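This is your field. Please look over both lines of this record.
***
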Amino acid sequence: MANIGLFEAKQKLSELVDRASAGERIGITRRGKLAALLVPAQSDVDLKQVFARIEQIRKSAKPLPKGLTVKDLIEEGRR
């Protein structure tokens, strides 16, 4: 994986997109730390599989205990 600074990435965005389209993974750094990844797009996503997986997750989710709401859990997490 190649790393490139944000300033340089802005100057060479078209070139970087071409490289990523060709299969290369490119890390974009900000102040020396990895901030983002430019990766090839996946054009072969099967939406039926995605929705089937979502349904599996829904079925495996446990119901909330009686008397609790999602809002209660959010508030508890903020404490």
Q: What stands out?
A: Residues 11 and 20 are 16 Å apart (CA to CA). The longest strand covers residues 33-38.
